[in-house]
Amino acid sequence: MPAKTTESPVRLAAETWESLFRAQVAVMRKLQAAPAFKALALNEYDVLFTLSRCPSGWLRLNELNDKVLLSQSSLSRLVERLEKRGLVERTPAPEDGRGILIRLTDAGRDLQKQIGREHVRDIAALVGPALSAAEQQELLRLTEKLRAAVSVR
Amino acid sequence: MPAKTTESPVRLAAETWESLFRAQVAVMRKLQAAPAFKALALNEYDVLFTLSRCPSGWLRLNELNDKVLLSQSSLSRLVERLEKRGLVERTPAPEDGRGILIRLTDAGRDLQKQIGREHVRDIAALVGPALSAAEQQELLRLTEKLRAAVSVR
DNA sequence: GGTCGATAGATGCAAACGCATCTAAATCGG
DNA sequence: CCGATTTAGATGCGTTTGCATCTATCGACC
């Protein structure tokens, strides 16, 4: 396929985004269908995952909201569900009477790890054969740069 | 930031996917908030867009379903809504009594073009400043390669 | 040609979603 | 220090979503 992307900057950006988006859809399709997500919706897993990556273990609800593609109200109720299932804990934020802090329970951490292992295998099975290591590193670099630039403020 | 990605292939693939996914979330956040999507949800726009890109103008429902991250039933009802709004048309497929064909109406095409213009501007404003033209081309190439590899069969 | 599994799409239903709004706490300005 | 604005999160409500299932047609095979 010839590179027809020397057209206009606007067009190049649009095509780049569309390609990124379609790739995300294609991969996500496969991942969602995996048995790892019988127990937990992807958004729910994403919250557990994000909490597991947090150094202090605690995250504010609004911090979580930056990571996940959900409205504030939906995230609020999603966390409520996770709490009912005993996967996360809530505490009023000590320094801000409006806020709440969330962290994984032991059960939540276990479930995240278990699903995470399967999930990582699924990802590797999809992405590994598709791109060389060097290409993956470059894709990682570019998407990280894009995310950082878009997320300013 | 040092490249810690020379670890294992599995880990590299997982980090690459996570970075791609987060970038997608970050960009999508901004795009969804744009005034272009007051009139039409993103999934709905995506269907109109896909139809507008189709050479024959007609698409089967199941072909459409490959492009969009929606279940079959959700897409069925989404198209139903678009039809009620006069944006798409349905016809029984001539060669397959089970299938239906969908295409844009004139109103649908107009709306897609109108939103599309705004949308492309929004994308360019986000992606353009984030990556150089060469980087965008490389990102386009890598995501297209990934999508193609994942979509086989 | 008739039966049988597979495929396309529609539909009932409960769960999840976003928007608008509400309450309460923090921050700002005088 | 007090009223006004902003911010964090919860909640009512109508809409959208996915799962399971249903109907109808297609294709394969005997």
What would you note in describing this structure?
The structure is a homodimer of 153-residue chains. Chain A has a 3-stranded antiparallel β-sheet with strand order 1-3-2. The relative contact order of chain A is 0.11. Chain A has 6 helices and 3 strands, in the order ααβααββαα. Chain A has 153 residues and is mainly alpha-helical. Chain A starts with 8 loop residues before the first helix and ends with a helix. In chain A, α2 packs across α5. Helices cover 63% and strands 8% of the residues of chain A. The first copy, chain A, has helices at 9-33, 42-53, 61-67, 72-84, 106-127, 133-150; strands at 59-60, 88-92, 100-104. At the A-B interface, α1, α5 and α6 of A face α1, α5 and α6 of B.
Q: Poorly predicted ranges of chain A (pLDDT <50, ≥5 residues)?
A: none
Give the amount of beta strand of chain A, in percent: 5-15%
Order of H and E elements of chain A? HHEHHEEHH
Helical percentage of chain A: 55-70%
Question: What is the 3D form of chain A?
Answer: globular
Largest sheet of chain A: 3 strands, antiparallel
Multimer state? homodimer
C-alpha Rg of chain A (nearest Å): 18 Å
